[in-house]
Amino acid sequence: FTTVNILGTKVTSITMQQAVETAVQFIEAKHNYMIATANAEMIMRATKDQELKEILNKVNLVIPDGAGTVWASNYLGVHMPERVAGFDLVQNLLQLAPSKGWRVFFFGSAPGVAEKAKLKAQQDYPGIEIVGVRNGFFTAADDKAIVAEINAAKPDLLLVALGVPKQEKWLYKHLPELDCALSIGVGGTLDVMAG
Ligand code: UDP
């Protein structure tokens, strides 16, 4: 796929269908892949946050989440076929999870939210295996235990909802220790699912 450099962050020109196919390949490759969802706010933040910018340029896929990202790309002369919202990508992957046999872990958001999002996922995607939930309020002293909790659940897909840039930084730092095929920073996705 073509990438477009938007203010220093390379975003991939990709359709939702291609993003889903790529995510499926990432999960099947079992290589600790990471996807970031770049909206205009994240790209602006990366211009002032070197660590975030470096992470975005190292992860396996940065999708164009938001009309601003699509607009900027087209303005810079790289055709962006459509907006690939992180929320929608996640729903598409959760829908595939039961038939693929993927185990899913929800990490992040306020206490109780991930549990509610789990109930919603079980309603919407019958047979889905949400193998763990953990709220997103913790200190660095808890990192080891959180990684151990995630690994013990053996997820194939890890959704991390700690907000930008915390989710990208936490995930990128712990990716080598995580025993999970694909991790995605998902912002407010669990809140929306929890309703
Ligand atoms: N959050 C969290 N831990 C924190 C800070 C935030 O779990 O230390 C959660 C928060 O409860 C919310 C999500 O991260 O569920 C951030 O959502 P938001 O829509 O603000 O995401 P962003 O716009 O940053 O992508």
From TrEMBL:
EC number: 2.4.1.187
A Gene Ontology BP annotation from the UniProt entry: teichoic acid biosynthetic process
Domain of life, per lineage: Bacteria
Top EC category: transferase
Recorded GO MF terms: N-acetylglucosaminyldiphosphoundecaprenol N-acetyl-beta-D-mannosaminyltransferase activity
Functional pathway: Cell wall biogenesis; teichoic acid biosynthesis
Catalysed conversion reaction: UDP-N-acetyl-alpha-D-mannosamine + N-acetyl-alpha-D-glucosaminyl-di-trans,octa-cis-undecaprenyl diphosphate = N-acetyl-beta-D-mannosaminyl-(1->4)-N-acetyl-alpha-D-glucosaminyl di-trans,octa-cis-undecaprenyl diphosphate + UDP + H(+)
Keywords, alphabetical: Cell wall biogenesis/degradation, Glycosyltransferase, Teichoic acid biosynthesis, Transferase
Family to which this protein belongs: Belongs to the glycosyltransferase 26 family. TagA/TarA subfamily.
Chain's role: Catalyzes the conversion of GlcNAc-PP-undecaprenol into ManNAc-GlcNAc-PP-undecaprenol, the first committed lipid intermediate in the de novo synthesis of teichoic acid.
Protein name, per record: N-acetylglucosaminyldiphosphoundecaprenol N-acetyl-beta-D-mannosaminyltransferase
Organism (species): Pectinatus cerevisiiphilus
Full protein: residues contained: 2 to 196 of 245
